[in-house]
UniProtKB/TrEMBL annotation, chain A:
<dbReference type="GO" id="GO:0003924">
    <property type="term" value="F:GTPase activity"/>
</dbReference>
<dbReference type="InterPro" id="IPR001806">
    <property type="entry name" value="Small_GTPase"/>
</dbReference>
<feature type="region of interest" description="Disordered">
    <location>
        <begin position="189"/>
        <end position="220"/>
    </location>
</feature>
<dbReference type="InterPro" id="IPR005225">
    <property type="entry name" value="Small_GTP-bd"/>
</dbReference>
<dbReference type="Pfam" id="PF00071">
    <property type="entry name" value="Ras"/>
</dbReference>
<dbReference type="InterPro" id="IPR027417">
    <property type="entry name" value="P-loop_NTPase"/>
</dbReference>
<dbReference type="GO" id="GO:0005525">
    <property type="term" value="F:GTP binding"/>
</dbReference>
<keyword id="KW-0547">Nucleotide-binding</keyword>
<protein>
    <submittedName>
        <fullName>Ras-domain-containing protein</fullName>
    </submittedName>
</protein>
Automatic annotation (TrEMBL), chain B:
<protein>
    <recommendedName>
        <fullName>Inositol polyphosphate-related phosphatase domain-containing protein</fullName>
    </recommendedName>
</protein>
<dbReference type="InterPro" id="IPR008936">
    <property type="entry name" value="Rho_GTPase_activation_prot"/>
</dbReference>
<dbReference type="InterPro" id="IPR036691">
    <property type="entry name" value="Endo/exonu/phosph_ase_sf"/>
</dbReference>
<dbReference type="GO" id="GO:0046856">
    <property type="term" value="P:phosphatidylinositol dephosphorylation"/>
</dbReference>
<dbReference type="InterPro" id="IPR046985">
    <property type="entry name" value="IP5"/>
</dbReference>
<dbReference type="Pfam" id="PF21310">
    <property type="entry name" value="OCRL-like_ASH"/>
</dbReference>
<feature type="domain" description="Inositol polyphosphate-related phosphatase">
    <location>
        <begin position="75"/>
        <end position="445"/>
    </location>
</feature>
<dbReference type="Pfam" id="PF22669">
    <property type="entry name" value="Exo_endo_phos2"/>
</dbReference>
<dbReference type="InterPro" id="IPR000300">
    <property type="entry name" value="IPPc"/>
</dbReference>
């Protein structure tokens, strides 16, 4: 039996795979700006620092899949560092951002990489992103240096700009391509993507039901 | 039902989703018209829609249904439907004439329904394709010619009832999802020779279904026929055929995915009716186990039902024949049982049929065109019919596609073109029927569909992000400034919902999810009390914690709670105070706790206390009372109207064992030179005194209780925002005293005395001891621990002295002091902000006051006038 065009329509209709993604990096490197660019295609010049963790969702079409990113944009300030595990713990993807005009921010990024390698989900897909390439005149981190580091640690690597939009979508789509979906589909049934909620071991049948629907089996 | 043992879950709770789905769906479908409407915000309650998944699906489906004209093209297909009861004959003759007698256009699809194709006894028991193949060959021979070739899509036999579908070769590629089904009617179900067989398929993107049936015979059996109809309509079901390529995530390895099914079929929803949804819901109720989904004949865009329906004419043979002879076919229809039953709406509801203009197709003498001449003389009848279904609420083709120009005549999904019988075939006692139709089928433009779908998904994301609760807190920093032991401090944090949905939140203080997550009241009360309870032995000097305000389905907000604990004399037990003679800051907090809890002293504490004599009353209490005795005698002062700055200064001096500058407090003159004060200032923050002063100022911000009574609002602001230094404080005090005299200083000192007394965790005279020994001062005195006894004695002396100056009445003094001195001791842990006096009943209070008044008289006998 052959299939008509109807089938492609059905394919894009299928349920998306949820991917929890966390953004990490020093304060003011542009994490929130990257998310804002990705989700709303907007940019604000003086974005205030994030105090807390912002939650946003974005769907993405990738070949025959729909990926639903559940994005946690974390606060970069050092004093909040200890709270980060809550957000990267169940993440399947991480975007670690540094500012190409600030060498110290790359160093901070490296410590994040180490921390994730040590403590995060072993299958986590990490992208290292050098932001603010629109400020290339003030560049203080050579492309090659960061790239070499990324290769060494098997990270995806991009230089991008939230301001101009350069490479922003690419970061997320390339990440999306690398994610081991079979595992996610298998795991989604047991995991809740929101940190701290319903992970406290309490058994709540009603909630669990809802969670399952909210996670592994959502439909659009 | 048949398979109950497979469905042990009789609660059917899981079904609620589908019920919700349905009502949600209906509600949304009726109310939502634009993509601007956020599916995640409930229109009525502004409450977040409980089920994200269903909301999403409903929204997407609805929007797709609205948008479908943009991505749907309509294609016209010509269909030839022939039905013939062949009376068990073999196809010895050519079918070419019949099958090529179409009047309208060359058919794209041939649908042939035969009845009584096989009347052999074996046909009931074993399925035998011999006849079917034979007829198939004949049909193919009949429809194929040099310039048009057809291929068989499917055929389905049920005993003698067989249906065939052929399609023009060029169109084969647009046919998909073909399935067949059959059902037997009558007593033995499948064993009967009545029933139906059907074929369902997708042509482009529309589901089309053909049902061929043979209903109960005999003129009198109208009811049986009606029942057969209902039986078939209900039970003829087509299996779901999953797409061959099981796209990742599509079926998820767990069998059929219902959600997918719903979404997929939502488009069709508008074209046919919503019966399918009811059906499926009921179906699911039975089929929990493996989610086997069947489609009823109504779950289609196009439905034809034809065959030997066997309805007769309600008249006798001769009359009917007379009508026929006169060519009054139309008049005959009045007697037609099917039309009569349809008018009653008991069968073929919502089915349509073209007008019959041909002679009855039954019953003929074989080999002739003469109606039955046998003994039985069966009356002629329109047994063989073709019906099609049209749901009353279906959309019109013009509403589903923009790209086609559809004329009024064309604005139906099924357009009948021809309805006739074919007399030339005489091998059976029935004549075959010819019918021709044009049907519209939908062809989804995949590109446009994807484009619109992506847009909708974007919009949906937007809505979803929009429905994320927006919670604003008044401050992300809760700075308690300096907090002091035993003084509960409260900070208000305003949490405001600025979003569009209701939300709940919780405050989490621990990274470890298994630990307690604390509720909101905790933060206003508990941190100060918890961390300061001596019995818990906490020795924190600084609190700097981040608590997380978790908003359900939304952002997390970090709130920094900060404070510094500065020990103060207030709230420390009398015994401890008698043991320490140096500034409080000299002693580690642990040592204070050890002393206060009467624990075993550590080496360190012992060392600190070495060579220190124990004073008989707390030194600082002595300083305060002494000041009042010396300088307050000539003032009519009160015990609750101190000046905030002066009080701060006094507390500062007491806590740090600094001599109170009496010149300043009494005359507004500082005993220190200005230059010394300046140098003091220059010590900046390194200087502990200065920082202590500035922290005092911070504390002031918090203890609202203190200043509300004494300071006006404007002054308050000045105090709060002024950058304090010792010099500034002194200058301020000097100003006050110069303007108002020493009364503010005396009042302040008096208030501090009361604070001292109230905040002793163990009362000067614990109520239990008072109850036992309180009848006489002497007995009480000897029952009390020495430092308490001394303190009591000293205070009574002070009161007696004050009374003797006659500015403050005895009764006022008794009222003020009695319950501050004689009261239940409070455990350090319970000591918090409770108003201590309130723990005594009025009668107890009165008793205490009477006794206290007596003690005064006992110690200092009133002067005889
Ligand atoms: N020139 C330039 N400025 C950027 C770019 N991205 C962000 N910024 C600016 O950098 C500042 C910090 O950006 P944020 O997005 O708030 O940084 P953040 O990483 O989220 O910071 P925290 O929330 O404190 O962790 C803002 O003023 C942005 O406008 C960029 O690509 N180019
Ligand atoms: Mg940020």
């Amino acid at each position: 039996m052959s299939f008509s065009g109807r089938n492609d329509a059905a394919a894009s209709n299928m349920k998306p795979i949820q991917v929890k993604l966390v953004l990490l990096g020093e304060s003011a490197v542009g994490k929130s700006s990257i998310v804002l660019r990705f989700v709303n295609n907007e940019y604000q010049d003086n974005k205030e620092p994030t105090i807390g963790a912002a939650f946003l969702t974005q769907r993405c079409k990738l070949d025959d899949r729909i990926i639903k990113f559940e994005i946690w944009d974390t606060a970069g300030q050092e004093r909040f560092h200890s709270l980060a595990p809550m957000y990267y713990r169940n993440a399947q993807a991480a975007v670690i951002v540094y500012d190409i005009t600030k060498p110290a921010s790359l160093e901070k990024a490296k410590t994040w990489v180490k921390e994730l390698q040590r403590q995060a989900n072993p299958n986590i897909v990490i992208a290292l992103v050098g932001n603010k390439i629109d400020l290339a005149n003030n560049r203080a981190v050579p492309y090659e240096e960061a790239e070499a580091y990324a290769n060494e640690n098997e990270l995806l690597f991009f230089e991008a700009s939230a301001k101009t939009g350069t490479n922003i979508i690419e970061v997320f789509t390339e990440l999306a391509k690398k994610i081991p979906y079979e595992q996610i589909l298998a795991n989604n049934k047991n995991l809740n993507s929101r940190p701290g909620q319903n992970e406290n071991g309490r058994v709540n049948l009603v909630d669990q039901d809802n969670n399952n629907q909210e996670n592994g089996q959502c439909n659009c | 039902m048949k398979n109950e043992e497979y469905y042990p879950d009789f609660s059917f709770n899981w079904l609620n989703n589908y019920k919700a789905y349905k009502t949600d769906l209906e509600e949304k479908f009726s109310s939502m018209t634009t993509t601007d409407e956020n599916p995640f915000i409930h229109p009525l309650s502004s409450e977040i829609t409980l089920n994200y998944r269903l909301s999403r699906e409903c929204w997407i489906s609805k929007q797709l249904a609205i948008e479908q004209p943009k991505f749907t093209d309509l294609k016209k297909i010509n269909i030839f439907i022939g039905t013939w009861n062949v009376n068990g004959r073999d196809p010895e003759c050519s079918l070419k004439g019949w099958l090529n007698s179409y009047k309208h256009k060359i058919p794209d699809i041939y649908v042939i329904g035969l009845q009584e194709m096989d009347l052999s006894k074996e046909a009931y028991i074993v399925s035998n394709n011999e006849k079917e193949n034979h007829w198939s060959e004949k049909i193919e021979e009949g429809i194929n010619s040099l310039n048009k070739k057809y291929v068989k899509i499917a055929s389905q036999q049920m005993v003698g009832i067989c249906v065939f579908v052929y399609v023009r070769k060029e169109l084969k590629k647009v046919i998909s999802n073909v399935s067949t089904s059959f059902i037997g009617c009558g007593l033995m179900g499948i064993m009967g020779n009545k029933g139906a067989s059907g074929i369902r398929m997708m042509i482009y993107d529309s589901y089309v279904c053909f049902v061929n049936s043979h209903l109960a015979a005999d003129t009198m059996q109208v009811q049986r026929r009606n029942e057969d109809y209902r039986d078939i309509a209900k039970n003829l079901q087509f299996p779901f055929i999953p797409p061959r390529d099981n796209i990742n995530g599509f079926y998820n390895g767990t069998g059929f995915n219902k959600e997918q099914f719903y979404t997929e079929n939502m488009l069709r929803f508008n074209i046919t009716s919503n019966k399918w949804l009811n059906n499926i819901c009921q179906e699911n109720l039975k089929e929990k186990g493996n989610m086997k989904i069947n489609f009823s004949i109504y779950d289609n865009d196009i439905l034809f039902w034809f065959g030997d329906l066997n309805y007769r004419l309600n008249n006798n043979s001769d009359v009917i024949k007379e009508y026929i002879n006169q060519g009054k076919i139309e008049d005959l229809l009045e007697f037609d049982q099917l039309l009569i039953e349809k008018a009653k709406q008991v069968v073929f509801t919502d089915f349509y049929e073209s007008k019959i203009t041909f002679k009855p197709t039954y019953k003929y003498d074989i080999g002739t065109n003469t109606f039955d001449t046998s003994e039985k003389k069966r009356a002629p009848a329109f047994c063989d019919r073709v019906q099609w279904y049209k749901a009353s609420n279906a959309l019109k083709p013009s509403e589903v596609s923009f790209s086609n120009k559809i004329t009024i005549e064309d604005n139906e999904w099924i357009i009948p073109k021809n309805y006739n019988s074919y007399g030339e075939l005489t091998i059976s006692d029935h004549k075959p029927i010819i019918s021709e139709f044009e049907i519209w089928v939908r062809k989804i433009n995949t590109e446009k569909y994807s484009e619109i779908y992506s847009q909708l998904i974007k919009q949906l994301d937007h809505h979803e992000n929009d429905s994320i609760p927006v919670i604003k807190v008044s401050s992300i920093l809760v700075d308690f400034g300096t907090i002091t032991n035993n003084i509960s401090t409260t900070k208000t944090l305003i949490i405001k919902n600025e979003g569009k949905v209701l939300s709940s939140y919780e405050l989490v203080t621990s990274l470890d999810d298994n630990k307690t997550s604390l509720s909101f009241p905790w933060i206003s009360v508990k941190p100060s009390s918890n961390t300061l309870t001596v019995t818990t032995g906490i020795s924190i000097k600084k609190i700097d914690e981040i608590i997380i305000l978790k908003v359900k389905n939304g952002n997390d907000i970090f709130i920094n709670v900060k404070s510094e604990i500065v020990p103060s004399l207030f709230g420390i037990p009398i015994e401890t105070l008698c043991q320490i003679n140096r500034p409080l800051s000299y002693y580690p907090w642990d040592s204070i706790l050890e002393l206060s809890n009467k624990k075993e002293l550590s080496e360190k504490t012992k060392e600190l206390l070495e060579n220190e004599e124990i004073s008989c009353i707390p030194k600082n209490l002595y300083v305060v009372i002494d000041f009042l005795i010396k300088y307050g005698r000539d003032e009519k002062y009160v015990f609750n109207n101190g000046n905030i700055i002066i009080k701060k200064y006094i507390k500062y001096c007491l806590n740090n064992n600094i001599d109170i500058d009496n010149n300043l407090l009494l005359f507004g003159r500082s005993s220190l030179s200005d230059s010394y004060l300046n140098s003091l200032d220059n010590l900046t923050s390194m200087d502990s005194m200065d920082s202590a002063i500035s922290s005092i100022s911070k504390m002031e911000k918090l203890s609202l209780y203190d200043y509300q009574s004494s300071e006006s609002k404007t002054n308050l602001n000045e105090i709060i925002y002024k950058n304090y230094s010792l010099k500034a404080v002194k200058q301020k005090i000097a100003e006050i005293v110069k303007r108002q005299g020493k009364l503010p200083s005396i009042n302040s000192m008096a208030e501090i005395l009361m604070k001292f007394l109230y905040e002793f965790p163990n009362a000067v005279v614990p109520y239990e001891i008072f109850k036992k020994y309180g009848s006489k001062f002497q007995t009480l005195y000897s029952a009390l621990p020495s430092c308490h006894a001394n303190t009591l004695n000293y205070i009574i002396c002070y009161i007696g002295d004050t009374i003797s100056y006659e500015l403050i009445s005895k009764s006022e003094l008794v009222k003020t002091f009695a319950s501050a001195i004689i009261r239940p001791s409070i455990d350090f842990k319970e000591q918090q902000e409770q108003n201590i006096t309130s723990t005594m009943t009025i009668s107890k209070k009165e008793k205490v006051e009477i006794a206290f008044s007596q003690y005064i008289d006992e110690v200092i006998p009133p002067k005889k006038k």
